[in-house]
């Protein structure tokens, strides 16, 4: 489970459901496919998350990064990509939720 504070919990839950498919978030029943989970503390001085006050960043594993980016952009959501975010583990993109939290999207390299 991931718990975090929000100025508008219901609105934020609806946004995550509508754009990222995180269904039943308000009821804590979201099911996901089994796969890699990384617990990765960063330095307190990192600028990787964006805002200095952001204490966490969630990363969602996706099957079709290009398709999801197209859908998000068509909905008016800004999508960031940078070549240096990509590595041998896959491709990455970043969006921000309505409260300004960075959300990373990751298409895993299949080996």
Automatic annotation (TrEMBL):
Residues 1-108 form the VOC domain. This is VOC domain-containing protein. The lineage of its organism: Bacteria, Pseudomonadati, Pseudomonadota, Alphaproteobacteria, Hyphomicrobiales.
